[in-house]
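ok so i was messing around last nite and threw this chain in just to see what happens. nothing serious, just curious
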Amino acid sequence: MVLRARHGSASYIISLKPHSLAVGRDDSQVVSWDLGGRLYSCYDEAATSRRGLDGRVLEKRGEGDHRTRQFLPGVEADALVDRAAAFARDVHGAMLSPSWTWLESVDPHESQVIASHVELCGRFTAAAGAADAARFAATYRPIGILPPDQYLSLVVQATEGCSFNTCTFCDLYHDGYRVKPVEEFATHVRAVRAYLGESASLRSRGIFLGAANALAVPMPRLVPMFEILIEELDAIRKGVCAFIDAFTGGIKSVADYRLLGHLGLRRVYVGLESGHDPLLAFVRKPGTAAQAVETVRAIKAAGIQAGVIVMTGLGGRQFAAGHIADTIAAVNGMGLGPGDLLYFSDLVDVPGTSYPRIALASNLEPLDQAGRRDQREAIRAGVACGRGGVQCAAYDIREFVY
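result:
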């Protein structure tokens, strides 16, 4: 329900949905919480901020190429959480005032339900958020990244770390790779359910099986994990998505993917990065473009949707021509169609990764924003994005917070 109200000179819009509560005041401020009362986002005329379950707050300012992003320092993040809680308490107090006026018809029960949710959100102070983040850390390993269409999925972790972790441009996984025993995975899934509680309703996009390369788990261990997801999280109805790398992915047969599809697997994401094998070797990404094509074709043959990720700017100007031509050829060889996704992810020079150092030593000329945009549009044109076929979208790793 979306309702308008007034209190004194202030106007309010309150949106209570099956997964969240949002309260706006005077068209200049909007704050959202999930139904567990955890702060999710804040908007004002200057910035949009989103809090992750791990307690970090990502602030975004501006639009398009002029957008800036930063994770707020702890003191600033705490201040934002406290301001949001104070805002909820102010709204709750106003709702109890005789001068509060609903501008639409609202029965007493609906008003009471909304007031109860607002009161709950007012308790989510910085101190409560810190305690909640500690519970998150006890339940999850760090969540490195998700595809944009999975940001509001419920994440469960079958593995930890990345199974190869050699890519020079990546700084997402710091721990060693480990596959959880099936019994430990079942305990983890139950712990996730207990931790999220009512907050799980916000993360209803589906189930994302983490971490970086979860589908590389051998079938004798992977199938029981899917059976746990069916029993605990209704995976067949909700659907499961996951990453797999190109060279390990090729080991699984069409029959394997078809079985996983019967157990709830809906989409598999493959980080192609480039179809140009010399560039893949340069950035130390294992496997070849041909292996990626084989992997995606097996996924598609099993009736499962695919999400393919291409990087723009990778390899700079020296690799640009080969990157464009060979990536177009690889993507067109995958048999993508309606329901599949092609993501374009701009190279982000992350301090601490080896790519900037190797690129400098190799005298690579980086592509500027215009050059990356031209590269993206050339690949889009070559694979006929959006013409009744694969859907194309941006994938900015700087936008992610879970």
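not much to say yet. The first strand starts at residue 2 and ends at 7.
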